[in-house]
Amino acid sequence: MKALAYYDGKIGTPEELTVPFNDRVHFFGDGCYDATVGANGKVYLLQDHLDRFYTSARLLDIHIPMEKEALGELLTRLLGMVDSKINFVYWQVTRGVEDRSHTYSKDLPGKLWVFIRPQHLNDPAVPVRLNDEEDTRFFHCNIKTLNLLPSVMTAQRAKNAGCFETVFHRGDIVTECAHANVSVLKDGILYSHPNDELILRGIAKTHMIQGCYRLGIPVLEKPFTFEFLKNADEILVTSSSNFCMYACEVSGEAAGGKDPATRKAIQDEVLREFCDYTGCTSLWG
C-alpha cells in the first residue's frame, strides 16, 4: 500500500475511507493530533509522541478509544503495511460523533484517525531562507473559522458551571462571549465593543444596534471594562440563534436587572424585525 488511512477500526486508502458527517472535527476542529516519521517498521520516538498525545487529549477532556500500549502496537502494525522506506506517521483523535453543539456529551467515545504516507526528508546540508511576521495567531477573532476548539472548551466549562455563556476579556477589557456578542446598557446608553480584530462582528449584534437607533437609544461602540459590565444596568447577549438574551448573574454575583423597560424594548424590537422578515407570527409554540 502506497498510503494508508485508518478511521475508527477501518483501514483503506485515503480515497476509500469516509468519515461521519457529524464527527465534531468537521464543525469545531474538535480534536488533537501527533506525528512523527517511521522507518524499517519502527515509529520514531514512539513513546515520547504517545505521551504528548495522551496529555493533549486529557487536557481537552477527549477520550482516546484505546490504551497507550495498544495504540503504539496499532501504529507499528499500520506502518508495516505501507510500501516505503521512510514514512510520515500521523494520528489524531476527535471528540466523537454527535449532533452539532458547542457543548458535548460526557464520556463521548473519541474517534481515532491514522494517516501514513511516504516521506521525503530534506537534506540538512542545504540552507533554507526565512522571513518574518508579527505573531497574530491569536488575534483573528473577527474571522468565523472552523477552529472553534477554545470556544468548545469554554462553552463546556460554562455548561458544567450551570451558566449560559462565558464573557471573555483581554486584561480588563471585555471583548465577546464564547459563541455570542455581549453588550451593556448603562444610563440609557447601549455600549458595545467596536468591530475590530478582537471580536466577531455579530450580525445579531449589528441588527440590535440598528434597533436601538430606531428606538432612539444612544449607542457607543467603544471598549468597556469587566467592572463596567458587572455594574451595568443591563447585560445583553446576542447571537443569530438566540437573538437577544439578558444576564442576571456574572461570575456568581447578581448583575443587571436595573433597566428592564429599556431592555425589553430592545428585545421586542429585535423580535419584531425577525417576525416582519420571516412572516412568523408565533415564536414560542
Q: Count the E strands.
A: 15
CATH hierarchy, class of the largest domain = Alpha Beta
Major sheet description: 6 strands, antiparallel
- The overall pLDDT average reads 93
User: What is the ordering of alpha helices and beta strands?
Assistant: EEHEEHHEEHEEEEHEHEEEEH
Number of helices: 7
Helical fraction equals: 25-40%
CATH architecture classification name of the largest domain: Alpha-Beta Barrel
Oligomer: single chain
Span of the ends, CA to CA: 57 Å
Describe the global form: elongated
Unreliable runs: none
Within CATH, the superfamily of the largest domain carries the name D-amino Acid Aminotransferase, subunit A, domain 2
Summing up helix and strand content along with how strands pair, one would put the structural category as alpha+beta
Per CATH, what is the topology of the largest domain? D-amino Acid Aminotransferase, Chain A, domain 2
Q: Indicate the proportion of strand residues.
A: 15-25%
Radius of gyration, in angstroms, nearest whole number: 24 Å
List the strand order in the largest sheet: 2-1-6-5-3-4
- What's the number of structural domains? 2
